[in-house]
Amino acid sequence: MQIQVNDSLMNVNVLFSEADIRERIKQLSEQINKDYGTENTLIILIVLHGALLFASDLVRNLGMPTEIETVRIKSYEGTSSTGNITLVTPLPKDLTDKQILVIEDIVDTGRSIDFLLKELRKTNPKSIKVCSLLDKPEAHEFPVKADYVGFEIAKHFVIGYGLDLDGKYRNLPYVADLKKA
Ligand SMILES: O=P(O)(O)OC[C@H]1O[C@H](OP(=O)(O)OP(=O)(O)O)[C@H](O)[C@@H]1O
Ligand SMILES: Nc1nc2[nH]cnc2c(=O)[nH]1
Q1: Residue 4 C-alpha to ligand 2 middle, in angstroms?
Q2: Which residue's CA lies nearest to atom 3 of ligand 2?
Q3: Which of 150, 135, 116, 129 is nearest to 43 (CA)?
Q4: Using a 6 Å CB cutoff, which residues line ligand 2?
Q5: Residues 125-171: pLDDT tens digits?
Q6: Domain total for the chain?
Q7: Residue 150 sits in which domain range?
Q8: Is the Cβ–Cβ distance between 128 and 92 less than 8 Å?
């Protein structure tokens, strides 16, 4: 598939197929189930919009009681970060003493998750961990480390499986990068 990005025609190059993602989600959920056990409730905090597809596949494999919550933060326009993070929706209420697992689609510069973790810590939860489908270690500008990572990737802009380009292509069932056609 080819798509137009600004003035360039780009090839959509699959990095992780549907099967790759399914298999990795199985492994991640096994690890999360092992770490948390089956007794205590886990708050699943889905960071909208990007993490929607990943989270909905991941939670189906979790064995503990969960409460699903969402938060929307925004930083990217096109393929670059604006540098300004905003909390578009409020944090869920009553997070004090709760176990929270934040679900992200990608940690890139780390600015978004750094911002969100600071906001969450103000609510005095029992614990906060982060599970991100993708991580770009070479792009980090903030000292963040996700506790669970699906795949580490290079410093390339990716789309699909929740990740957008100006709001589009989130529905692609795979993760792809863009190469000049
Ligand atoms: O580590 P960073 O450099 O901050 O980049 C990661 C963030 O960027 C994307 O969000 P975006 O603001 O594009 O919103 P979206 O999830 O609605 O696409 C993504 O979902 C992460 O939240
Ligand atoms: N779609 C998309 N959003 C991002 N937000 C931060 N990095 C990325 C990326 O590589 N792709």
Answers
A1: 17
A2: 163
A3: 129
A4: 76, 106, 108, 157-159, 163-165
A5: 999 999 999 999 999 999 999 999 999 999 999 999 999 999 999 99
A6: 1
A7: 16-32+39-77+88-173
A8: no
